Structure formats: C-alpha cells, structure tokens
C-alpha cells in the first residue's frame, strides 16, 4: 500500500478485487486471507480519538473547577482552534494520521491551554483595576508577551530532540515531538490574539461572598479561606528562612536521583496484541519434508489450547512482516519455520506464551523453539546479544561455545544460539595418492565426476508455455541422500570403472553453515532469549556477573561487544542526547534574555534539572521501568516544568516592592499567581489520564514521568523559586 493511502479505504478495494478473482478460480481452489491489518488500525485510531476527546473533557472539567465556567469556556476555545491548526500543519508537513501523531496531540492537550490560562487570569485583574477593555487587553498582552514567549520557546526546545531524533527510533516517535511543537506554536499565537479579545468581552462577575458556595465555585472557581490562610502561613514561615524552603523543595528531586540507579532498564515494552510470534528451528541438516511434518504436529498442539483462533505457518523462510518491527532475514532454510498465532484477546496471548513455550520445548528437545510476544519500537534480533570479533573461525567458534554455555545458565533464559555453531554435514574423501596414480585418476577428475553425479549437469532444456527451462541430470534423491549408496558409486576413466571407495576413505565432516560478518569483520554473535515478562537488562546484568566470575579470557586480537536491546537503547539514547547540548545552550540564552539575569536563569535551570529528578521519583514510586519513553518524557518535562517558574519569577521582577526582596510583597505575588499555576499543574497531567487508563506498558511511563514531574515542579515554582530569589537579594 502506498504511504498516501488510507488502509480502511484501500482494504475495501482489495476485498472487491479478491472477490472477483475468486469467482474465476478453478473448482477446488480457494483464497484464504492470512492477515488483515485494517481492524487493528481502526481499533487503535478509534481508541486514540476517544482518549483525545476524554482528555479534552478532563482538561475542561478541571479548568471549570479551578477558574469557573466562564473562564473555562474561554480557555476551552483554544482546544478546538489549536487542534484544527495542528491538523492543517500536519497536512502541510505531510504527517500521516497514525497512533504517534495522535499521541502527540494527547501529550499537547494539557500544554495547549497553559498560556491561555495565564492570559484569562491576568486580563480580569486589569479590568478590576478600572482599566478600559482595550487598555486592559494591551497591558495584559505587553506584560505577558516575554514570559509566554520564553516559556513556549523553552518547551519547544525541549521537544526538538524528539522531533529531530534520527534513526529507527526517530521514525517511530518523532511525530510526537513535531505535533507538540506545532500545537505549542499555534497555542502561543491564540493566547496573545484571540483569547484576550474574548476575555475582555466576557469578564467574570465580581465575587459575591454571600452566594451559595457551590454556585460561587462554579462561577469563580474553587476557593477555601481556611486553606488559603494555611498556605499564606507556610509561605510566610519559609520566606523568613529561604534556605530552609530551598532544602525542603529539593528533597523529592534528590530522592529521585538517588533511586534512579535502582530502576530497571527497558528499551520498549511488549505490544498489547491478540497475536504472537513463534519460530521453530531444527538442526541445519533437517529436510524440508521433516520440518513440514513437525510443523503440522506443532500446529495441532497449539490449536488445542483454549482461546487460540488460528495458526499460520511459513516453512523455509520468515513470515511476511505482519507487524511493523519484525525482522525478515530467513530465506531458503528448510530447517526453519515461523508462525503467526492469533488469539481471542491480548490477555490470552500473554497467558499462552509461557505455556506453549514449555510445551513445545518438551515435544521438540532437539529444536530451538522461540515463542515471543510482539514488541514495540525498532526491531531487535534478540533481547540479549554478545558479539565476538576476530579472524580465526575455530577460535571464534570455541569462544562462542564458552560464552553461550555461560549465557544458557543464566536464570530466565529460554534458548541460546551463536552464529557459527550451525554445522552442515559435508562429504569428505581422503584420496589414496598411490591408488589414484595406478588407476590414472587425478584429484580434479574425481571431483568433477562426483559433482556431475551428485549435483548434476544441465543436459538440455524444455519449453513450458513461453518459458525455457533447463533440465538437470543426476542420480535420484534416495541415492544422493544415503552414504552407503554414495560409496557404491563407480567412477570411469579410459573406459574402465573403479569403485568410488577403492580410491580412498569416505567420511562425514562438519562444515560451518555460514560465516557471519559485521562491518567487514568476522563475528560470532551469541544470542539469548528470555522468558515472557522478564526485562532483558536483568538477564544481561546477571550474564555480565557470570562472565566476571568465570574469568573467561579473550585472546589478543579478539574483542567483545554488547548487542541486542542494550545496544539499540544506548544508540537511540546517544542520538537523542547528541541534540540536547546545542538546544540547552539555546534554552539558556532564551532564559537570560527574557529574565535579564544569569542568576535568575540559573534558578530556572535548577528547576529544570530538579524536574527530571521528580520524574524519576514518580517512576520509582509507581514501579515502572526506565525505558526509552521515560527518557523522552524526561526531556520533554524539562521544558514544561519551568513554565510556571518563569511566570512566577517574572511577576516578582515586575512588582516594585517584590523586586527589591520584600518578603511580604513576594508572598502576595506568589499567592496571586497560585491559581493559574495550580490550574496549569492540574490540566497538564489530567490530559494524560486516558493514556494511564489505557493500560499496557508503552504509554504509562511517559505519562507518569511528565505528570509526576509537573506536580513536583509546582512546589518548586511556589516555594523554591521565591525562596531562591529572596536568598539572592539578601546575599
């Protein structure tokens, strides 16, 4: 299918074509659709669109609770406006409508209205001061232009590494960053143009303390006098001792960084799919007929399990790529077969994988059986992999056997293999030179006659329809496949026939099936496959400890390299972080120019660093692994988490008394900023609720990192930033 086609429309055309084709088939022949991607795409898009709408509803509900219904309606206007502009941007950039691009919109949901919330909170304050609507609008836009521009640009810089990420990982997740950047750009334009104009025409009513409490909350947003007093008291106490406030605010980030070393590492999690992948590999000498017989038996065993709908086998080669990251590398291998197993639900697939793995291991002890779930992310040949580089094949093979033996003893490893251990049976003849001279047979003559007899020679051609086919003449298959029959062959020279065995001894010799190379070097790749639900990082860590204890020495000229999931993760993270340095300099420049101070920019920088610690703390608290999506969330979090701090710090700088370090004035500025800070804090994480409720292992780490980091960054904006400002002024 071409990239500019929609699979639902394209598949309907395919069905119609197949129906017409089937009508013309001879009796006894039929068509069977092995796999159809359309239901999976439709289900995924429908669920993502529902998540998008649910997230928008949650964001609007939180805005009503925090700011009142009028302000919520004004802020809510930004969601459809920005969404439509993002769709236009996607069309212009030729970004397809798929799960990653939609997820970018879900991630941007809470971020879209941050600027609008600040504007809607600021404009009414100027109106209450007695300014006319036009003057209130101009003053609000002029006052907020620099902080909103700075916060938007820093957030864009945080998501740029994701959008610009090269390689397979970038192709996979890049559109998340692109769509977030598009959404934030249009959100800034809307917040400085359309939203202020609407706000001055529909200002919130004046507060009426005598009105019914729920009605007052509905009109003005949540407020509680007792809680405000306690909050004011906490600010007063900490502002007297700003160092204490700084230390308390840094506690959670420090704990997060300390616990980072205990987090399990994972590249990408498994997919939630009602399918799984099965590979069956017999010894290299196994004939295709034997493989087919065993495969049919295995198919019947699998179908006996409750919940299995169908099993499709492909013998002698890899299955067609029915999932986007499957590796298609096996062809013309009679000892190999791969299957697509379809079940009734993802839960049944997860339950059946370990059961079928153990069952087939018992039934086929001489085969390598790999029952694996479908994975997310770029393709990886094996979860655990060790590459041995060198020149001598015998040494490489010997080292591979030793390392493979150690790997096979690691817990939770189901199967191992190395690329030089697969040997084929080779017919060897040790020529008796004296006898060959007496019979006048040369080595070349013997080799040519054996090759002609066993492999055959082209004896002519036949015409089949419009195609000319060569005819190969050789002894029949039974005689070629039996060693005794081969020994009974006669060789002819000068009209005399001599028994094949009279010229020497016939033996069976092992021959390496294939010599593998990587980057032009000979390599023996040792691979390990792990049980369902076990993180490869755990197995790799235990394997490395075993290697240290075993004291295996690699000869001079031979090198080791870790591959598998670990190498792919490190490569992807390296490519991601390669862009961070330049973008960090750009972010620092933006902060210095917008705040007019290196020290204040450093305060915001500390907030960004601490937000990463808060994200790690959230991962540790909810027991999620530290994977690639967590890293992406952490990088994006840096730009998001500092937005509230920039707004608070700008407000302090713009107040004449607070600017001088007056703790009372700083306290009132912080209290005044708290409503929109808390609103943006709640709306951003609440946009991730659909991703969390969706379950699975792919989206929750991303959502947990950003949501947890933003909640913690609120404390930094309301306590750490003003305490740091006061400390700077006092010193």
Question: Could you explain how this protein is built, in words?
Answer:
The protein is an alpha+beta fold and 731 residues long. The chain is 61% helix and 14% strand. The protein contains 28 helices and 15 strands. Strands 5, 6, 13, 14 and 15 form a five-stranded antiparallel beta sheet that branches. One of its GO terms (molecular function) is xenobiotic transmembrane transporter activity. Pfam families: ACR_tran. This is Probable RND efflux transporter. The chain crosses the membrane at residues 48-66, 73-93, 141-164, 176-198, 238-258, 576-593, 600-622, 628-652, 673-693, 699-728.
Summarize the model shown.
The protein is of the alpha+beta class and 731 residues long. The chain has 28 helices and 15 strands. The strands form five sheets. Strands 5, 6, 13, 14 and 15 form a five-stranded antiparallel sheet that branches. Strands 2-3-1-4 form a four-stranded antiparallel sheet, with helices on one face. Strands 7-12 form a two-stranded antiparallel ribbon.
């Amino acid at each position: 299918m071409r990239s500019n086609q929609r699979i639902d429309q394209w598949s309907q055309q395919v069905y119609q074509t197949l129906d017409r084709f089937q009508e013309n088939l001879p009796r006894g022949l039929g068509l069977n659709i092995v796999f159809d991607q359309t239901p999976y795409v439709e289900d995924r898009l429908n669920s993502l669109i529902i998540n998008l709408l649910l997230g928008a509803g949650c964001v609007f509900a939180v805005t009503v609770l925090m700011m009142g219904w009028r302000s919520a309606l004004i802020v809510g206007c930004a969601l459809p406006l920005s969404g439509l502009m993002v769709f236009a941007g996607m069309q212009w950039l030729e970004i397809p409508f798929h799960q990653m691009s939609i997820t970018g919109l879900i991630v941007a949901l809470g971020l879209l209205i941050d600027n609008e919330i600040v504007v809607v909170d600021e404009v009414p304050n100027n109106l209450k001061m007695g300014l006319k609507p036009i003057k209130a609008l101009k003053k609000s836009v002029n006052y907020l232009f620099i902080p909103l521009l700075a916060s938007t640009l820093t957030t864009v810089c945080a998501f740029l590494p994701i959008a610009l990420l090269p390689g397979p990982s970038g192709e996979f997740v890049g559109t998340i960053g692109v769509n977030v950047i598009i959404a934030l750009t249009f959100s800034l334009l809307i917040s400085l143009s359309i939203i202020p104009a609407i706000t001055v025409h529909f200002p919130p009513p004046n507060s009426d303390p005598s009105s019914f409490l729920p009605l007052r909350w509905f009109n003005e947003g949540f407020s509680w006098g007792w809680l405000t007093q306690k909050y004011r008291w906490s600010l007063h106490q900490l502002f007297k001792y700003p160092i204490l406030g700084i230390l308390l605010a840094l506690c959670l980030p420090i704990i997060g960084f300390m616990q980072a070393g205990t987090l399990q590492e994972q590249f990408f999690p498994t997919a939630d799919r009602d399918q799984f992948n099965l590979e069956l590999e017999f010894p290299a000498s196994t004939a295709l007929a034997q493989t087919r017989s065993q495969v049919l038996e295995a198919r019947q065993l699998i179908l006996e399990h409750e919940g299995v709908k169908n099993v499709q086998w492909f013998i002698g080669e890899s299955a067609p790529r029915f999932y986007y990251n499957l590796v298609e590398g096996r062809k013309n291998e009679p000892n190999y077969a791969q299957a697509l197993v379809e079940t009734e639900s993802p839960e049944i697939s997860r339950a059946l994988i370990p059961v079928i793995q153990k069952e087939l291991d018992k039934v086929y002890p001489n085969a390598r059986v790999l029952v694996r779930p479908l994975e997310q992310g770029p393709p990886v040949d094996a979860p655990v992999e060790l590459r041995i580089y060198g020149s001598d094949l015998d040494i490489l093979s010997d080292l591979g056997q030793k390392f493979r033996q150690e790997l096979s003893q690691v817990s939770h490893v189901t199967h191992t293999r190395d690329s030089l251990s697969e040997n084929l049976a080779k017919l060897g003849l040790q020529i008796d030179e004296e006898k060959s001279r007496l019979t006048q047979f040369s080595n070349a003559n013997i080799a040519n006659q054996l090759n002609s007899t066993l492999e055959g020679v082209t004896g002519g051609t036949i015409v089949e329809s419009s195609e000319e086919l060569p005819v190969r003449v050789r002894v029949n298959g039974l005689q070629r496949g039996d060693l005794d029959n081969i020994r009974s062959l006669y060789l002819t020279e000068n009209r005399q026939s001599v028994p094949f065995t009279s010229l020497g001894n016939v033996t069976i010799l092992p021959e390496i099936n294939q010599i593998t190379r990587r980057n032009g070097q000979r390599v023996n790749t040792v691979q390990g496959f792990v049980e369902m639900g076990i993180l490869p990082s755990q197995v790799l860590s235990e394997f490395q400890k075993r290697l240290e204890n075993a004291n295996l020495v690699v000869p001079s000229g031979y090198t080791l390299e870790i591959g598998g999931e670990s190498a792919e993760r490190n490569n992807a993270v390296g490519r991601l972080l390669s862009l961070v340095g330049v973008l960090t300099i750009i972010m620092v420049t933006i902060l210095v120019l917008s705040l007019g101070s290196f020290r204040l920019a450093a305060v915001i920088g500390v907030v960004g660093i601490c937000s990463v610690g808060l994200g790690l703390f959230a991962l540790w608290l909810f027991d999620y692994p530290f994977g690639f999506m967590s890293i992406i969330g952490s990088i994006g979090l840096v730009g998001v988490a500092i937005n509230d701090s920039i707004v608070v710090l700008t407000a302090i700088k713009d107040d004449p008394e607070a600017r001088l370090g007056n703790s009372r004035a700083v306290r009132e500025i912080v209290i005044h900023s708290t409503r929109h800070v808390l609103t943006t804090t709640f709306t951003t994480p609440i946009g991730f609720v659909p991703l969390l409720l969706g379950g699975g292992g792919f989206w929750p780490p991303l959502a947990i990192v950003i949501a947890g980091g933003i909640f913690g960054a609120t404390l930094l904006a309301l306590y750490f930033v003003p305490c740091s400002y006061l400390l700077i002024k006092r010193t």
